[in-house]
Amino acid sequence: xxxQQKLGALEAMLFxxxxxxxxxxxxxxxxxxxxxxxxxxxxxxxxxxxxxxxLMLLQFEGGRWxxxxxxxxGEVVKRILDTRHNAPLSPAALEVxxxxxxxxxxxxSFIEQVRGVDSSSTVSKLLExxxxxxxxxxxxxxxxxxxxxxxxxxxxxxxxxxxxLPPLHDEEEPAPAPEEELPQQLGMEETP
Length: 192
Known about the structure:
Layout: H1 3-17, E1 21-22, H2 23-30, H3 34-50, E2 55-60, E3 64-69, H4 74-85, H5 91-103, E4 106-107, H6 108-115, H7 120-129, E5 132-137, E6 145-149, H8 151-156, H9 182-185
Antiparallel strand pairs: 1-3, 2-3, 4-6, 5-6
């Protein structure tokens, strides 16, 4: 690798990692000496500074480095992140949330059985958004992970508790039992 390729490799690793990473670890991945990695990191840092890039390299104690956006661009970065987080939920996401909220804790296979389609990507997106969380493992073959809605779900939908959910099919039945009682009722282990 020539120097430009090494700089590109460092840039790619720092971007992909997202967290501070030790120069020695970067050097090991590139199969170069740690001192050479430090020199390359300083070169990359100077390049970003010289061209007023939107990116910068931060150096932390312990020889750790992290790629970050410049504070000057903080407002536009914030706007794009707010737009992403406030994107409306898809009909599939709303269906999965309803299945979980009314039947929690439930496994992914239960959700898929109710909906009749693969729901793994929708469940993953809801986990990322913090609307659902893992609620232990069900006492079933294979010990599948169970999911439940979070306080964030309640806030987003303006609910004080699950008891505030509208009844299904105009039933007068109470909403599901509080989350603390459900694991014992279903023979589950709770996650700490």
